[in-house]
Amino acid sequence: MADFKLEAREGSQMALTMTVKADVVQAEYAARLAKYAKELTLKGFRKGKAPLPVVERQLGEAILSEVSYDVMEKTVGETIEGLDKDKQPLSFSTPVLQNEDELKFEHGKDIEFTVVYDVFPSVELGPVTGMEFEVLDAAVSDADVDAEIEKLREQNSTVMTKEGAAALGDIATLDFAEVGDDGKVVEDTKREDFTFTLGSSYNYYKIDDEVVGMEAGQEKDVEKTYGDDETNDALRGRTVKIHVKLTALKERVLPEVDDEFAQDIKEEYKTVDDLKKHIREDLEKQMKDMRDNEAFMMAYNQIRKTSKYELPASLVRFAVENETRDYLRQVGRSADEIDRLIKNGDPMAQYIMAMVQDRAKANIEQQVILEAIQKSGVITVPEDELKAELEKQVNDQMDEDTKKRVEELVKDQLEFSKVPRYILDNNTFKATGSKLGMEAYTEAYYDKMSKLDGATGEEAAEAADGSDKE
User: Fold this and answer.
1) In the chain, what is the straight-line distance between the N-terminal and C-terminal CA atoms, in Å?
2) Whole-Å CA distances, 347 to 63, 351, 424
């Protein structure tokens, strides 16, 4: 192996400086020169019959350069293969030759050169355990259960024609149009048979309240003023007269909450109490997951802030491109088209990459920090759990090397998946504030998560659930 020196640089980079001895280059040069002499046809000579001195005089400099680069590349590959894994380049980081324009290849002289590449970042962890945090206080209430039952009633309601006055929640069908200052209908604003639920404001003029109290067949003019906070640019600041005709009115008839209703939801529920018990258990599980997520993200964010690490540019770029590829796949782009868009710097791809930049970086940071905790040796996997997982993934058809690799991978993934729980179990989380119900807690939770630097509610959920590394 050639002599080499490895030096860590900023940005999670390694500089590998190597010396290739002159005799190694010379031996390869002689072999390459002889090979070309047998294969080439030079002017004045038949193929393979030109004397070596003639071939060397015409092509020697080019052959020496070609051989030197080949020997350098081979030497770099062999040297890197012998390094510890944490000193090897990331799979998508190609070693880059430094100061190439200063290289001079001469017979009888060693070649000294340096390549630089990115490595997986090392992390100097801040405190991981023994911290205390304030989290939101919350519990599933009877009102939460009742709200879920109301949703089920809505989902299982029947729609019937309504006699009498319209009320919020009814389904109205309208003909409407603006009326100009001359009292005539503005033709291009006419709309017929428009159906919506009163109270939803899913209509252009937001005339829900004005329709309440009308009966089917009734029509009237309403005047409505739109303030400066109106989101519709065409209506903002205007006072508009609208002619409205209620052509049909329907109401949702909700089922009674009785044992028959519970059985309609699911056969295994024999009574309303069974249904309520299931709903409560489901809500409690959802809330527990969210509370674990909240606690984990608070602790993780503190660990992230107090840890020292540098993300290599290639790792962030790789993560951003992956997020971009996922987005483009979801909107129906083909693999070939995605490659072309990213490779050519297409404006749409560039826009998406900018859009996902922060999220991709946050995901990479989280993986790097959790892996550093894992590698610190604090995580253990029970033997029975490891054995059970290996039985699923290792089979007798595998050769020994494959089995070993799979076993190492399974153990690594199991360890990594336990890091969030380790953080939760080894820090203190004190519930403060008023006890929130499900709806209020959900809103407060996502608001809190959005204010944590480098973290989102979605990432919190994935991490605290013990998601595997990519």
Assistant:
1) 34
2) 43, 6, 43
With tokens 């599980």, the residue in question is 285
CA distance 470 to 466: 12
67-120 tens-digit pLDDT: 999 999 999 999 999 999 889 999 888 999 999 988 999 999 999 999 999 999
Instruction: Give the number of residues written for the chain.
Output: 470
- Alpha helices (H) along 42-188: 52-81, 142-155
pLDDT in tens, 41-63: 777 777 767 777 877 888 889 99
Listed in sequence order, the residues at least 6 apart from 24 whose beta carbon sits closer than 8 Å to its beta carbon are 2, 71
Q: What is the CA radius of gyration of the chain?
A: 35
Architecture of domain 3-118 in this structure = 2-Layer Sandwich (3.30)
Q: Which alpha helices (H) appear in 99-187, and where do they start and end?
A: 142-155
Q: Phi and psi of 467, rounded to 5°?
A: -60, 145
* Cα gap 115→18, rounded to integer Å: 8
Residue type, 92: F
Helix axes 347-373, 272-306, angle to 10 degrees: 90
CATH for the stretch 158-253: 3.10.50.40
16 CB-near residues (< 8 Å, 6+ apart): 4, 5, 6, 76, 79, 80, 95, 114, 115, 116, 117
- 376-390: burial string, b at 16+ Cβ within 10 Å, e else: eeebebeeeebeebe
Predicted TM-score (pTM) of the model is 0.75
Burial class (CB within 10 angstroms; exposed 0-12, middle 13-18, buried 19+) of 360: buried
Which sign, positive or negative, has the C-alpha torsion 288, 290, 293, 298?
Answer: negative
What tokens were used for 106?
């001469």
Structural domain boundaries in the chain: 3-118, 158-253, 272-379+418-464
Q: Name the β-bridge partners of 114.
A: 17
